[in-house]
Amino acid sequence: MEIDRAIRASNDRRLQTKYENATFVIQRAFALYAFEEVAFSFNGGKDSTVLLHLLRAGYHLHKEEVHCYNERETDCKSCPMRTIYFESSSAFPEINSFTYETATTYNLPLEIIRSDFKSGLEALLQKKPIKAIFLGTRIGDPNAVGQEQFSPSSKGWPPFMRVNPILDWSYRDVWAFILTCKIQYCSLYDQGYTSIGSIYDTVPNALLCISDSTGNKEKFRPAYLLSDGRRERAGRAKKFSSSIHEGVTVLRNGVSSVAPSASGILTASVVAVGDEILCGIVEDQVGPTLCKKLHSIGWTVVHSAVVRNDVDSVAEEIEARKHSSDMVFLFGGVGPMHSDVSVAGVAKSLEFVWLLMKSLRSTLGILSGISALGIVMRWLSCLRV
C-alpha cells in the first residue's frame, strides 16, 4: 500500500501515531462487522478524503491480518466498500466532480441519495441493512459533541454504529496526511476554502487572503497554509439581513463570526488532574465551582473531565479540547513534586514546546521540567508567539 509506505517513511512521529490509531479503529470495525454490513459516508471534503485513504489502508491491512495475501499489488487501489453520497443542488460543482472522479478512480460502489441525511439514511437502511457507517467526524465539528470512536446513532435516528477513526485528528493532522501521502483533494482547497459547506454558506477564508495593491480580484493561499487550525471554519459565511443591497444577500466571511466580540458566546472545557479524584479519595469541588462561575458570566462549558495523573493523559485531553473550546481550564497536578504533571502535559500537547523542553533537559541536565518550560515560555514571549 502506497499510503502505508508513505506514512512509515515519514519523520512525522505524531502523524504516524494518528495513522496507527485510525487504522486500528478501522480494522477493529472490520473484525466486528461483516464487510457487507459497513458503509462509508463520503462528501468530497478533506476529512472524508483522508478517511477514504485510511479505509483503503485499513482494509488491506485487515486482509493481511486474516491471511489474504493473494491480491496483486495492482488491485490494492480498489476499495469496494459501499459508499454513500448525499448529493445536493447547493453543493459546489467542484465537490460533485471530485466525488464522482474519486469514486471512479478507486472503484467505490457509490450510492447517491438526493434527500436530507436522515430520511435518505432511513430509506437506505430499510433497503439494504447497514450496521456501521464510517464518518469523517473530527473534534471541533458541530456534531462531534459527545461522540467517541464508536458511537451508536442518536435517539430518533435509524440504529447503526457511527465509526469515527479520525475523531481526535486536528486540522494540521489532516493536511499533514494529505501532503505526506500526496493524495488528490478537491481543488477548492487551493482557492482558500478551509471548510466547505454549501454554495450559500461558504466563502474563502479571509485569513488566507493575499494583499493585492492593484485592487484586482482577491487571491487566496491554499488551505494547508492556514497556521491556526482553530480558524478552520472561519470561511463558513453567514447571511446578514443588513447586508442586502438591491435584493442580493451578501455573504460575509466568517472570521468575525468566530471572534468572541462578534458571537458573544465563549466556550470552555474544564479538566481536573488527579488520581485521588478518580479513586474517590478526594471530592472535586473546584470543577463545579468553576462551571458555575463561567456560566454566571455568560460562558458555555461544553466539556468537563477528570484525567489520570500522568503526562500522556493530560496531553491527550488538552489535544482533544484545544480545538473545540475558546479556553481550556486545567487544575490539579501543578507544583514542585515529581508527580505534578500538568505543565509537562500541556507542553506535550503543544508539540514544539515539549520538544524544546526535552532538548533543554538533555542539554543542561540540571534543569527540572518546570525550569525548562519557564525558559521556553520566556523565549516564546520574546518572539511574541
UniProtKB/TrEMBL annotation:
It catalyses: FMN + ATP + H(+) = FAD + diphosphate. It is an enzyme of class 2 (transferase). Pathway: Cofactor biosynthesis; FAD biosynthesis; FAD from FMN: step 1/1. One of its GO terms (molecular function) is ATP binding. Residues 269-383 form the MoaB/Mog domain. The keyword Transferase applies. SMART domains: MoCF_biosynth (SM00852). This is FAD synthase. It comes from Acorus calamus (Sweet flag).
